[in-house]
Amino acid sequence: xxKPKTLDMTNMMKVYQIALKEIGQKEIPGxxxxxxxxEYHQATTLKSRTENTSWCAAxxxxxxxxxxxxxxxxxxxxxxxxxxxxxxxxxLGCLVGLERNGPGGDSHVCFFIEEKNGIWYCLGGxxxxxxxxxAFNPRGVIYLRSY
Length: 147
Known about the structure:
- This protein is α+β, with helices and mostly antiparallel strands.
- The protein has 3 helices and 6 strands, in the order H-H-H-E-E-E-E-E-E.
């Protein structure tokens, strides 16, 4: 009998550790820009220079590149549903795509941390204008990806 394939967590743990160190990076109110968020944006092909541009996907791209992994370099959260391999259940560090504002509306991408009492906790950029761990309802999940 063939041995079942196991998920290699090495890359996801490397990215997760990088993302954890970024907790607390936040937008600067007013006309100034946080240089770190600008750096995240430079990890995408959009290369935005303003915090007014959604930056959750830029944060994901930056974390992957910092870990020495390939990135699709997209600034759009929905594009990440084609990255890596699809998962049926979340695992620590996997990408989570979430729908915001209803089906077909805006989306968000972040890293899965854990599930507690039916709520998912994910680490991401542009969560209340900063890098932090936030709670999400898993009913809004549109994709889970390993890498």
